[in-house]
Amino acid sequence: MADSSSLDALVEALRRLPGVGAKSASRMAFHLLQHDREGTLMLARALQQAASNVRHCERCNTFTEGQVCSVCQDARRDGTKLCVVETPADQAALERTGVFRGYYFVLMGKLSPLDGVGPNDIGLAKLFARALDGTVSEVILATNFTAEGEATAHVIGDALKQRGLSVTRLARGVPAGSELEYVDLGTIAHALVDRR
Amino acid sequence: MADSSSLDALVEALRRLPGVGAKSASRMAFHLLQHDREGTLMLARALQQAASNVRHCERCNTFTEGQVCSVCQDARRDGTKLCVVETPADQAALERTGVFRGYYFVLMGKLSPLDGVGPNDIGLAKLFARALDGTVSEVILATNFTAEGEATAHVIGDALKQRGLSVTRLARGVPAGSELEYVDLGTIAHALVDRR
Ligand SMILES: [Zn+2]
Ligand SMILES: [Zn+2]
User: Fold this and answer.
1) Which residues pair with B103 in a beta bridge?
2) Residues of the signal sequence (chains A, B) (predicted)?
């Protein structure tokens, strides 16, 4: 963009962010260096802190900074119910309904054969070990109602039924083709109650 | 998003980027931590490097790492012509036409009274000192053909004409309402030749 290899390197690094092309990256770099040097250093520090502190919960696989996240540490929850979601944002959407009081497993992705994302890439072995702890009796599949989310639910559901667990799916009160994160709370709450 | 204050801080820092809202920031943080830890650290380093290395050229005000940028150091250029642009990206668009062989001054912004951006905020004093170096005889105003770019050109043009300089504007071959960065090279080249 200008006479600076540091600036070029910054634009290249910003392009690694999802949804950021060459023009957006240039505009971001210009904004940071021209108008927000404080924000530039703040973002640099936040990235480093997150990269060194954020790990996966040993039980539910979500992002956390300890060995086990606060939800998994909450002993008042119902250990017989395990809800499987794709991302922390989906888990947060379910939590906001206040309807579900069991535990979660966060896949941190979904099966996506076309993109080369198979069972090993989304930690299904870790899920199966968690679901077969002897306490869980019902696994609620709350993956998104997209083609990939449905396929993921299908694969997980088949495997867990074979191992003797009761497997349910969020009721199709959730509009088909949508992503949980963007669905209103009432619809999600209703779908939880009507799970089948 | 999840059980991590480092993650929350990262999402907040990403929201300072232009055009990035809460949802985008969450998705970016998720992508970086789940799929691109290497990119996370690369971006952190690039931000720090740019923040400490990038400064403004003493002559033309663009981003550079030395005192004077490579364009200003190029002695083969025509010192009688000075082209005023809003941003380094606009300068790059003009350079790609190969038509202009004078020097530049980069405002790093534009007058925008509604946003509280006045003459002191875009370094007009630095421009006037540069334009009145005794060698410059023609100042070509190549600010964008938006309302703010036109107003900026008007203010600069009036001031420099009063100081005895010849002032021209890119010909209106450039479609009104558009930004230089997105205009095709032929149109920009034509507008340079037809400057008035
Ligand atoms: Zn957990
Ligand atoms: Zn320069």
Assistant:
1) B82
2) none
Mean pLDDT of chain A: 91
Rounded CA separation B132/B125 (Å) = 11
How would you classify the pairing of strands A138-141 and A102-106?
A: unpaired
The DSSP code sequence of chain B is --B-HHHHHHHHHHTTSTT--HHHHHHHHHHHHHH-HHHHHHHHHHHHHHHHH-EE-TTT--EESSSS-HHHH-TTSEEEEEEEESSHHHHHHHHHH----EEEEE-SS--BGGGTB-GGGGTHHHHHHHHTSSS--EEEE---SSHHHHHHHHHHHHHHHHTT-EEEE--TTSPTT--GGGS-HHHHHHHHHT--
Mark which residues 18-37 of B lie under 8 Å from A by CB.
18-19, 23-24, 26-34, 36-37
* pLDDT at B169 exceeding the cut of 60: yes
CB-CB under 8 Å, B30 with A36: no
- Smallest CA-to-CA distance from B194 within B156, B142, B151 is with B142
Q: Is B42 close to A69, i.e. CB distance below 8 A?
A: no
CB A141 within 8 A of CB A168: yes
Please name the residue of chain B whose CA is at the shortest distance from the CA of residue A63: B2
- Scanning every residue of chain B, which has its alpha carbon at the shortest distance from the alpha carbon of A26? B89
Q: CA B187, CA A113: separation in Å to the nearest integer?
A: 46
- Nearest-angstrom CA–CA distance, A159 and B190: 67
From B177, B110, B163, B165, select the one nearest B140 (Cα to Cα): B165
pTM of the model: 0.83
In what helix (H) or strand (E) does residue A155 lie, and over which residues does it extend? helix A147-162
Burial of B102 (0-12, 13-18, 19+ CB in 10 A): middle
SS3 A3: strand
Predicted confidence band at B193 (pLDDT cuts at 50, 70, 90)? confident
A12 in contact with B at a CB cutoff of 8 Å? yes
Degrees (nearest 5) of the Cα angle B88, B89, B91? 60
User: What value does the mean pLDDT take over residues A4-23?
Assistant: 95
User: Which residues of chain A have a CB within 8 Å of the CB of B9?
Assistant: 46, 49-50
B166 at A interface, C-beta within 8 A = no
Cα A80 to ligand 1 centroid, rounded to whole Å: 15
